[in-house]
Write a structure and sequence with these properties.
Radius of gyration: 23 Å
Number of strands: 7
Number of helices: 3
Shape: rod-shaped
Distance between the termini: 28 Å
Number of domains: 2
Helix content: 40-55%
Strand content: 25-35%
Order of helices and strands: EEEEEHHEEH
Length: 145
């Protein structure tokens, strides 16, 4: 990102440079997509856990069906097959859980990026930095110091 607004400075950025918080805006660039929100338009920031609980439900149901099929004729083979499928669903649920950082703008725009490899403390530190930057930006826009 080229800093080209008057008096704009980078406060923090991701290791790969795709995400930046400046004194004036927050920006995310990934692939061909690009999102920028001016700090005075930020309405909320949150850490969100995204998962597919249906996978966990299917996994538990699969394991229960496997246990129930042990009593039937040829039950061991069927139980093993159903049990493996159930375990596969549970593994898919665990592996598929994601943590994302979401910034919402007044008027409905949203900036979302994955927090894989980022600790919760770092996310909270970022929120603190953003809130301080928003406060400073609002003060500069209203002329208060």
């Amino acid at each position: 990102m080229n800093i080209n607004l008057p008096n704009e400075a980078v406060i923090t950025e991701s290791n790969n440079g795709g995400f930046k918080l400046t004194t004036h805006r927050v920006r995310l660039a990934y692939g061909d997509s690009f999102t920028s929100i001016m700090l005075e338009n930020v309405s909320m920031a949150r850490v969100e856990h995204i998962s597919k609980p249906i996978l966990l439900i299917l996994g538990v149901v699969g394991i229960l069906l496997a246990i129930a099929s042990l009593d039937s004729r040829n039950g061991e083979m069927i139980a093993m097959l159903i049990g493996m499928v159930g375990i596969g669903f549970i593994v898919a649920y665990i592996v598929g859980r994601k943590q994302s950082f979401v910034i919402e703008a007044k008027g409905g725009g949203t900036l979302t990026f994955s927090m894989s490899g980022i600790k919760r403390e770092r996310a909270m530190e970022f929120i603190d930095q953003m809130e301080q930057a928003i406060d400073a930006r609002n003060r500069s826009l209203t002329g208060r110091l």
